[in-house]
Each structure stands twice: as C-alpha cells, then as structure tokens.
Amino acid sequence: MSTIDSILTENRVFPPSDDFRRRARVSGREAYDALCAEAATDYEGFWGRQAREQLAWHKPFTQVLDESDAPFYRWFHDGELNVSHNCIDRHLPLLANKVALIFESDNGTVRRVTYAELSRLVGRFANGLKSLGVTKGDRVIVYMPMSIEAVVAMQACARLGAIHSVVFGGFSAKSLNERIIDAKARLVITANAGIRGGKVVPLKTTTDEAVAMGGCDSLERVVVYRRAEEKDAPIEWHRGRDLWWHDLVADKPDVCEPTWVGADDPLFILYTSGSTGKPKGVQHSSAGYLLGAVNSMNWVFDYKPDDIFWCTADVGWITGHSYVAYGPLAVGGTQVIFEGVPTYPDAGRFWQMIERHKVSIFYTAPTAIRSLIKLGGDLPKRHDLSSLRLLGTVGEPINPEAWMWYHEQVGGGRCPIVDTWWQTETGSHMLAPLPGAIATKPGSCTLPLPGIMADIVDETGAKVETGGGFLVITRPFPSQVRTLWGDPERFKKSYFPEEYQGRYYLAGDSAHRDDDGYFWIMGRIDDVLNVSGHRLGTMEVESALVANPLVAEAAVVGRPDPLKGEAIVAFVVLKGARPSGEEGKRIIADLREWVAKEIGAIAKPEDIRFGDNLPKTRSGKIMRRLLRAIARGETITQDVSTLENPAILQQLQESV
Ligand code: WTA
Asked: Which of 93, 157, 346, 645 is deepest in the core (most CB within 10 A)?
C-alpha cells in the first residue's frame, strides 16, 4: 500500500462547547461510546431496537437481519410499513400546521407548505398516478427541477409502493434515455422548465429528445408540471402521451391510503457512476434506508423540533433523497428547499437565505464553499447568521483551510461542523461526528456512526493498523445498497469482492486513521472522478468522446482543481490528423459541447489534448498514471521504456 500515503497533518481539534454538548441528543463521548458498545455486544438487538423506536410499522417484523442470501442482506424483511406514511401521516394531526417545506424560488418568492397541505398534495398526486395505473413495483422517472412538486412526486411514488428513479435535471437526453430503458419506466414526471440562475432549463424538451432516441418501449405517459408560463417555456405536446400535472390532479381526492410494502421492498433506484461505462442502478430498500435517514438526522444533525434545516443538494443526488425528500420529513422537521444556484444574483445568496429563513442547520458541499470563498469571502459578514447552530459538509474531503473559513465566517466560531462521509450506496451517513459527543478536526470525517463497523484493510483484506488502505464496512447495515437494479452479479463484484471472501462492503475509497482512531478520506481507488462533489466514471466520459464521429480513442483523467475538487482532462486521438491552431481550438470547443450533450454539462472536459496515439502498456492498457502526471503538468519519472512511441508524450503535454 506504499502508493497511498498521507500528506496531510492537521493538529487543530474542536471539542463541542459545553452548551452544545448539554443540549445534544447524544451528549458527550460516553453517550456515543455506550451506543457503540450496545451495537458491538448485540448487533441485531441494537438495530431491532432502533427500527422499532424510530419507524412506524404497519406490521411488526420478527427477524432483524436475514443473512441467508448474503451479500443480498435483508433487514426487518417480514415487517410492513410505508415510507410516505412515516414521513407525513404519522406527524398528523399533532404537526398538521407545522411548516414542512419553505420553498424559495430562483427569483426569491417564497412558498410555505404545512404537513397538512403536504399530505393533501401528496394524496392528490398519488391518486393521479393511481388513475394512470401506477401500482406497487412500477418504475417512475422523476426529471424535475428543485421544487415542492419534486418532493411530492417522490413521496407519492413511495405512497403507492412505486419505485422512483430521480434523474438529475442537469443530465442530458442521452442519460435520461438510458435510465428510462434500464429501469423499464412506465412514466416520466418532468416540468415544462427548470429555472436556475435566471436561465430556463428545458426539461420537457430534453425529455422529448430522450424518448425520440428510441428504445423507451416501457414508457406510457409523460406528466408535466407547469413551472413556467407557457410563453416563456415553449414545448411540444405529444397527444395521448403528455399530460399536465394540474389536469391530472384536478378532480382527485386529497386522501390516498398508503400501500403497505415489505420492509425490504425497493423504495427507489438511483443511478450512479461506476468504473465501467454503464451507470449502476443503486437499489435501496424501504425500511432500512429510512432508518438510516432518521438516525442520521437525529445523531449527526442533532435534529430538534424547532430547527430550520437546509440541505442545499438537488433531489437528483442521494444527498437530496436522504436529506431533502425523506430524512427531514421523517423526523417531522421544517426545511428550506431552494430552486436556484448559490451564485445568483450574487455569491451572498446562501447567507441571505440563512438570515431570511433563520436556518439553524446548514448542509452543503465543499465545492460550493470553495467557490463562495473565491467569489465573496467577505459576504457572510454582511448577514445575520446567528440562527445557525450546526454546519455540515458532504461529497468530498474538505480542505482544512476551507473548513476554517466555514467555521469562522459562517459559523461564527460557535457551530460544530459535521463532515459526513457516505455514498449513494450507503444511503445515509457512515462516518461523521455526533456533534455533541465528538471533537472535530478540520478535514476529518472523524468516527463511524453507532452500529457502523468501519475499518481499513489492505488488498488481502487484512486490517491496516497505521497508514492508508481501503475503507470497508465489515458488517451489513440497514441502509446499505440492496442490489444493483437488474444486475446482481455486478453488485457482488463491485461491493463484495472475492478477495475479502465476499464479507466486507468495499466502499471504493482509500482512507487512513490517526492516533485517535479518526478517519481521513484520501480519495477514490477506482477510475471514478469527483467533480464538484459528483461522481463521474472516466469510462462514461470516454465513451461519450469516442461516440463523436471525429474521435478514434480517448482517455480521461482527473486533475486536482481548487474549486471543483477534480477537473476533467481528456486525451484524444482523432481519426484524422492531429489538429493544431484554430482548427484544434474549434474541435476542442465542439468536443466539450458534445460531452455536455451526451452526459451533461458537469462532465465537460476542462482541458483536451490531442495525440497521434495514447500511451499504453504492452498488454494494451492505457497508462493512466502517466496521463495523470501529464494532466498535472508534472515531470515524468515513470518508466516509459515500454511505450511504442515515446514522442507522443511530448504531443500530449502540448495544449493546442
Ligand atoms: C466522496 C455522496 C470525503 C467519496 C454522498 C465517496 C467524501 C463519494 C465525503 C460518494 C466526505 C462523500 N469526505 N469524501 N465527507 N462524502 N465523499 O455516491 O469519494 O455521490 O465515495 O455520494 O464521494 O459520492 P456519492
């Protein structure tokens, strides 16, 4: 493991204040240790107690964990419940008039929805879906802007036991097409437009393009929410297929009885990048997934009934599932939902909104923090941020300097920061400080949550005591990915490799532990990029490039980027001659646009280099390490004697 070395030494430690600790749900280190000890002594007893106490069951379970078909673990499987019932009905009538959602639109208008109203919105839409024949187990694609309706759509699916698959609104028609096909979706729910940073995002038109690409035989209907005036968002209408949201719900009753589902029945599929071309359909269960969301709301966010919670993630990512659509509602919380972008109308938007809505818990990504420092590091000072009591980060390691800025400038030095490590596949937080119990260190996600058995191992599965290694979770946990949709073999191969006798969940990240047992994430171990906190497979970007008629071959690597975390650098071999000058510049611009169209704007390469060939080993494997060194502008110290044409290194170092 000599290749994974830690270069970061960080000695600052921030214990919780006495005041924070006293009021915290898990108060003091002993309380955290006691929970961990309970889980260590009686693992199933611990999780059984959590599931009984934290979730509302229609039919109680009798078995906590069924390992008979490992690694397809089933949690609480003979119990029955409904996730939407847990998020809405169980809070009524007590919290009927409590605000559930505070929606702020791109241009600043605000709409509040109470639990009673949310219940009616979800009930009517669920009845609408039902009238279209949607039933338990059907797949529904949600391709929506950040909105109350996006949450309503997800909750309505959950209410019927239908399986939603949310596709991030920034993804292209091609990506949407692949997901409709893979999930065999009957329905797409979209909007005539999304509005972000003053710009119209043509979601419905993109949906039409996706369907026109063919193969979507399962698709019956497209439901369109009218976000923008029709004159501002012209769309085509496909009679018999397209249907306005408002027409669908017009004559529907407010009440829709929840469909009871098995604890282990799928709640949703969310596609995420793996190291091979095809996205993985990460499938989550109902009860285990929800338990993870609820426990982390309580443990990590220390949620209290009078909190105003704001997670800035889009519902298109797992963070927007667990900490927008489900977690905050499952605990009966009030949360802010934001349609726009952090830099519009200026880089003070987040701080202005925290002041306006008196946000007490704020959860965002390091990439957003870094860009806000750059665009307006002094802006937080201009706002009253005294309502804040807790800050969080997710998506990538946060560099200690950004952590300190967040702590001082946003948190006024008084708010603990919870750096939460987790993944689409883990469903909820795995490593994160319980803020009233664990002292934090800038850049470390600290310790596992109670009941999460995290460890670091080498390539043989042996425990690594000091130094870096592979991060694994050694026992199944309730919110763990249940399988990959339609591909159980890939599920086993990806997460329970044979080297570990299929016992450990392999996260795909490297990490090391310090003397206090704190975890420090070091990065991905596979060919997956982390761009602005979003996982992208190098293969996906490469496939997109090669799909362009000009391109013969392409290799993509990441280069550290101060704002995005990683920026994409593409090495491209054209079918024709290696271009230069104006022609080269034009092709670069075309290829960047091409990738944006194929996958989405987040996947646009920052830099494209042309070569007559790519550096390969004798066995024909692309020498990615070499390309990474070139992308970073480093001098090449590796052995390149096996290269057939060493001159190409020179070419690949040159920009057009
Ligand atoms: C990275 C997002 C360091 C990590 C919830 C992980 C992090 C991948 C952190 C999952 C963190 C997420 N510190 N790295 N606090 N949080 N990551 O599936 O590489 O979009 O494997 O889930 O993001 O990305 P995903």
From this structure: 157
Atom of ligand 1 nearest to the CA of 319: 5
Angle between helices 581-598 and 173-183 (to 10 degrees): 30
Q: CA 487 → CA 119, 184, 259, 427, 627, distances in Å?
A: 35, 14, 27, 19, 32
Determine what percent of the chain is predicted with pLDDT higher than 70: 97
Q: What is the DSSP letter of 186?
A: S
146 CB-side CA count, 13 A: 26
Residues 206 and 204: their CA atoms lie apart, in Å, by: 5
Q: Is residue 480 within 6 Å of ligand 1 at its C-beta?
A: no
pLDDT at 619: 61
DSSP of 107-162:
TS-EEEEEHHHHHHHHHHHHHHHHHTT--TT-EEEEE--SSHHHHHHHHHHHHHT-
Closest residue to atom 5 of ligand 1, CA basis:
423
- Measuring CA to CA, how many Å separate 204 from each of 126, 149, 176? 21, 15, 11
Whether 54 contacts 291, CB under 8 Å: yes
DSSP-derived secondary structure letter, 311:
E
Residue found by looking up tokens 């109470």 in the block: 114
Q: Which helix (H) or strand (E) holds 355?
A: helix 349-357
Task: Yes or no: say if 556 and 542 are a contact pair by the CB < 8 Å rule.
Answer: yes
* Residue pLDDT, tens place only, 440-469: 999 999 999 999 999 999 888 889 987 789
**Tens digits of residue pLDDT in 532-553:** 888 888 878 888 898 899 998 8
Listed in sequence order, the residues at least 6 apart from 561 whose beta carbon sits closer than 8 Å to its beta carbon are 567, 606
421 lines ligand 1 (CB under 6 A): yes
